Amino acid sequence: MIVALGSNLTGEFLSCHALLDAAGARFAGVGLPILRQSGWWRSRAWPDPSQPDYLNGVALVETALGPAEVMARLLALEAAFGRRRGEANAARTLDLDLIAHGRRVMDEPGLTLPHPRAHERLFVMGPLARIAPGWVHPIVGETAKELAGRATIGRSARLEV
C-alpha cells in the first residue's frame, strides 16, 4: 500500500519536517506500519503558489486492512495533527492520501483507487520513484520512475538534503 504525506502548515510543531516525522511515527500505532519511507520533497503549493511551500513524501505501508478502514485511520491521523477540512486545496497541517492499495481499482464515494491524480504529480511520483521505482500504476501501466519523468504537476518538487 502507498500513502502520500504532505504538509505546508506547522501546527503545534516547529517545522513541517517535525510534523511529518511525528505523523509517520504514529502509523504503526494505528495498524499501518511503514516498511519504507521516502525523503521529504519541497515544492511550491499547487494550485495556489501564494500559499506556503509543501513538504511531501511517500510511505510503503503493510496492512491487512481494507481500503475503507485504511482511509478512516488516515483521516483520524490527519485530525489528530490539526487538519481542518474546508475549502478545497487550502493550506493544511497534514494531508494523507491513499495512493494505491495493492493492485485494487475502485471508485466509490470518498475513495478512488489508485488515487486519480497521483500519477500526474511529481511531488508524489518523485518520492515513490526513489523507494519503489518499479511500482506499476494499475491503470496507466507505467512505472513510478516513468511517471515521475513525465509528471506535469508540481514540477518544482525537489528532494531536500
Structure, explained:
This protein has a single domain (2-159), classed as 2-Layer Sandwich (Alpha-Beta Plaits). The strands form 2 sheets. Strands 1, 2, 3, 4, 5 and 8 form a 6-stranded antiparallel β-sheet that branches. The chain has a two-stranded antiparallel ribbon with strand order 6-7. The longest helix has 14 residues, at 67-80. The chain contains 4 helices and 8 strands. Helix 3 runs antiparallel to helix 4 (144-150). The chain is α+β, with helices and mostly antiparallel strands and 161 residues long. The protein has helices at residues 16-26, 67-80, 122-131, 144-150, and strands at residues 2-7, 34-37, 41-43, 54-61, 95-100, 106-108, 111-113, 158-159. The model has no long low-confidence stretch (mean pLDDT 95). The radius of gyration is 14 Å and the shape is globular.
Going by helix content, strand content and strand pairing, the class is alpha+beta
Give a short account of the largest sheet: 6 strands, antiparallel
Radius of gyration (Å):
14 Å
Distance between the termini: 26 Å
- CATH architecture classification: 2-Layer Sandwich
Helix content: 25-40%
Low-confidence stretches: none
What percent of residues are in strands?
A: 15-25%
Gross morphology: globular
The H/E string reads EHEEEHEEEHHE
Number of strands: 8
CATH class: Alpha Beta
Summed over residues and divided by their number, the pLDDT gives a mean of: 95
